[in-house]
Amino acid sequence: MSLDIQESVPLAEFTTFKIGGEARFFVSAQSEIEIIEALRFAEKNKLEVFILGGGSNLLIADEGFDGLVLQISLKGILFGAEASLPAINNGLARKNETLVTARAGENWEEFVAFCIEKNLAGLECLSGIPGFVGGTPVQNVGAYGQEVSETIVSVRCFDRNAKKIVEMTNAECEFAYRTSIFNTTYINRFVVLGVTYALKYDGEPKIVYKDLQNYFNGKKPNLQETRHAVLNIRSDKSMVINKNDPNSNSAGSFFKNPIVDLKKFAKIKQTAKNMGASEVPSYSVNTNKIKIPAAWLIEKSGFYKGFLFGEVGISTKHTLAIVNFGNAKASDVICLKNKIQRKVKEKFDVTLKPEPVFIGFKDLQKHD
Ligand code: EPU
Questions:
Q1: For residue 298, is it within any domain?
Q2: How many domains does the chain have?
Q3: Which domain CATH number covers 347?
Q4: Is the pTM above the cut of 0.85?
Q5: Is 191 helix (H, G, I), strand (E, B) or coil?
Q6: 43 catalytically annotated
Q7: CB-defined site of ligand 1, < 6 Å
Q8: Which domain holds residue 300?
Q9: For this structure, is 24 an active site residue?
Q10: Which of 69, 92, 200, 247 could form a disulfide with 238 if both were Cys (CB 3.0 to 4.6 A apart)?
């Protein structure tokens, strides 16, 4: 079967932002062989490659992408002994845990729902997050006190340098807050094909985040109840995609929550005090690092929920989400991004780092 290579494919519909121009070439790969063939085509034609998953953490330039967009459409979920034999053979399987392997193109939210139906714990706090399984190790997806790094055993990848399939262990992925080797040291080198998670049958849900604790107010929920609580909390913040919600055309959190040292934290507290703000919300990362909600910094820098800037703006329910409220262009989003970053830097001397991946842009500063 020959590879279906399409040309001039509009990309906006592949993203939750609903923004972006065309891909010069586009392949939706249904098998590992098709992925390898598509990469060969790109190499032969000296094309840049962008690996597309669920498009939920992505901003594509209005000019589009002058290369090959390779969408990973690998489907399938394997359980127990069937799941990732290499992981078992390498002794990576952990006691009392069920290994579940999902191929990279599985819808994440459906996969989480499926695992919870099977009474498997470990992913319940990650309910309602848009995107594909393959994206989860890349940015170490996390929410409500849980990160995929806690359950990932191994990641099956195609190594574009060595031109072979490899199984990366959890340690080799070097997970940290919103990062892994896949989006740092070895960006663009590995194509994620599947991910193996170690989940606990009949395990306890993880209730550590304040919002979740408040929701249950001391009661002990089961996995299904925890999932519903997370979905409710996320929905209240317009962080669950819903066609009828005008806040939905976004990439979720647009900035990472900055991690600062104690000295910087003291300065931020002083600035806040001078402004008359009572307390700076914060989470301790370790003895000398503090994470501060970017949403709070943005609000205190003069922005607010529902802030409009032409066709883009800030979600009416959560200050961390930039939203396409109509027919926004990528350049409008970049303009607002730059404006927010400048104000937060001016006010708190903190540089906010965007969470989404930017594709096809030549100069992110030129949109001011
Ligand atoms: N806050 C505001 N204004 C807002 C919203 C929040 O000031 O409009 C402040 C409040 O102090 C609040 C704090 O920010 O207590 C934290 O807010 P929230 O619980 O909504 O979490 P977040 O820090 O904004 C992070 C993740 C989300 C994840 C939530 C819950 C990042 C970049 N984002 O957001 O990640 O769902 O925590 O754990 O780390 C996602 O964005 O889709 C996501 C999965």
A1: yes
A2: 3
A3: 3.90.78.10
A4: yes
A5: strand
A6: no
A7: 129, 143-144, 209, 211, 237, 239, 252-253, 256-257, 281, 293, 295-296, 299, 305, 318-320, 355
A8: 246-367
A9: no
A10: 247
